[in-house]
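Re: export button greyed out
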Amino acid sequence: MISGVFFYQRAMPKISTKGIKMPESPIRKLVPFAEGAKRKGKTVFHLNIGQPDIKSPEVALDAIHNFSDKVVEYSHSAGFESYRKGLANYYQNVGINIDHSDVMVTTGGSEALLFALNTCLDNGDEIIIPEPFYANYNGFSISAGVQVKPITTSINNGFALPAIEEFEKLITPNTKAILICNPGNPTGYLYSKEELETLRDIVIKHDLFLFADEVYREFCYDGNTHHSVLNIEGLEQHAVVIDSTSKRYSMCGIRVGCMISKNKDVMATALKFAQARLSPPTFGQVAGEAALSTPTKYFDEVSEEYVARRDLLIEGLNKIEGVICPKPKGAFYCIAQLPVDDADKFAQWLLEDFDYNGKTLMVAPAAGFYSTPNTGTTQVRIAYVLNQEALTEAVECLEKALEIYPGRIR
Amino acid sequence: MISGVFFYQRAMPKISTKGIKMPESPIRKLVPFAEGAKRKGKTVFHLNIGQPDIKSPEVALDAIHNFSDKVVEYSHSAGFESYRKGLANYYQNVGINIDHSDVMVTTGGSEALLFALNTCLDNGDEIIIPEPFYANYNGFSISAGVQVKPITTSINNGFALPAIEEFEKLITPNTKAILICNPGNPTGYLYSKEELETLRDIVIKHDLFLFADEVYREFCYDGNTHHSVLNIEGLEQHAVVIDSTSKRYSMCGIRVGCMISKNKDVMATALKFAQARLSPPTFGQVAGEAALSTPTKYFDEVSEEYVARRDLLIEGLNKIEGVICPKPKGAFYCIAQLPVDDADKFAQWLLEDFDYNGKTLMVAPAAGFYSTPNTGTTQVRIAYVLNQEALTEAVECLEKALEIYPGRIR
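Workaround output, generated via the alternate export path:
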């Protein structure tokens, strides 16, 4: 029998082209170097990942502590009905007029985007995304067999929406959707109502879907207003919103988000994908539903804290010679242009070869947030998710590092 | 501006062909009729879904009640390292010699299968699956752009593995994998070691992956032994196991499973898909890790209960004139052949037009578990997930229903 096996033996089965094309996370790929730095005794300031240090709301944690079911059952594939109604109420309170039947609970915003892609795009179809964009959009697109067509925005005008003509140059018969992140990860850019109306005109003219990742909705600063695509007249059948509890309530680990659209075909189709995976996580939904009662004070304090961190960070960065960093209007990230040969090498060097008083910082090289090759290679994404003291030290580290980095460009 | 919008207005954007092809869940599609029956005051015995009524282990619920982190953070994309080590230890205890680096924690067995498909198969590639099979394999295959090639097994020999020649007839240059469920949902079939060795010979000869969904591993009855594909010599680079905590610990709602393979390329590639979705649910992992300490007594009691239920159900079913139901060797489902014109119509009729003393039952029409059209149309899947009293009443309902069902075939 065994000899038969060896007689048959040929090459090992091969992984898919899709799997080969799948990018490593630019946010996580330097992790081994960070672990190495820590083994050497260095303190590493983690500005590479959007994992806030803000406490999760007590109401949410209390609901988990008091979970009283004896069997942890599947929920409805679209999520608890009570939670969907609570979510509809939340959206109404922020001025977005939707019904609970327009909302489906998902396993994080990640799954919401994957469902939106599978629902609206076929293998080989194209989606236009302003870059730099949240790096994992690449991964979800590859999973769904979708081609990303990036439209590059510039640090020189703060990553504003490109002109309508630039979009139209990219539109082909295979283009099915445009995806934006608003407020933007990694840029902190907040779209104006006029920009959203421009996007409306494009998607209606070319019969496209408009996906909007609005997970940072609550993180808008300096009195700026967030405009949801759900509130843009004429977009009712085109707009699909991706949302998440992760950042809003600093509960990244609960893996609960949602997908929202007034397009009934879209929601009915997405539900079929949801049924295949049975249900979103029960405990996460319990925490998410309870979190809807988080007092306003929580958000006010969080917002105040992020504004203080942002101001400290952006001011500090722009004081460093050769660094350019537009001031984000929302979210808790910025893209900074550094005077270095290559941000990938610099980020690795920070962890491997540098410390200032035993401390260093970890940043995410920005090239992974661009889909166009060789773009953003001297930029990094910095998440201001640490307290002000740590941020101050991290900026100081960066300044010292840039003074002695061998690949510095003047 | 608005007039411009109406000027541009064309057809609504259309959902994808993938979305249209996506099947409705055969397990859940009758839900509206069940809701209707309940509104009329009928008691409905839910034998349509594998949602056990068994209590989740207390150690797992206690861990949730005692969760003490103040921030619910992302975990490692592959899951908590401590949990992966605990899982490796669990597998070693059931005779499967793997290391924690061979295990990746996923959001349910569902995600593990989706990752396995994306890692190993490209759009248009083919996977052979003995049918009837767990209906959601269709959904995951469509999501991944993969073609299912069913190989039909017969109720007449208890759904045993078809002959090797039958497999070879289906293999083309696009065939990349075979998928089995062992013990089987929906058949309760348990593969013998010889059958697994036959599969080994096929996959090695044709350079395929062998995916095995082993989520019902603990549910093997009558002294039968479960053989994992991870223990079949020669399959090290070919075998990928899909596993889940859902049924083992009756915690379907925690959405935690895992993917296991000794093929390092497979695991490294799957990790990239895992990184895109950031992490599996934190609370579910806490419960899953704690559940590893569930006392043996729990499983003994559960197994004893399922055997009693199975015996009661299968005996009851086979006593009904015209019903054929092979005795399952594992899991907690059976496929029964009914003397009806169409099991879909019959299942709907049970809910809409029938009751016996105010009671009726809900079953899953088996056609949704076959991929070959017009197959299994007079079969149903019954999950024995209710207590013995309810099961007895449900079997009695079925008997009475078959006596008066207008579409009865003699």
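Chain A touches chain B through 100 residues (CB under 8 Å). The button fix ships in the next patch.
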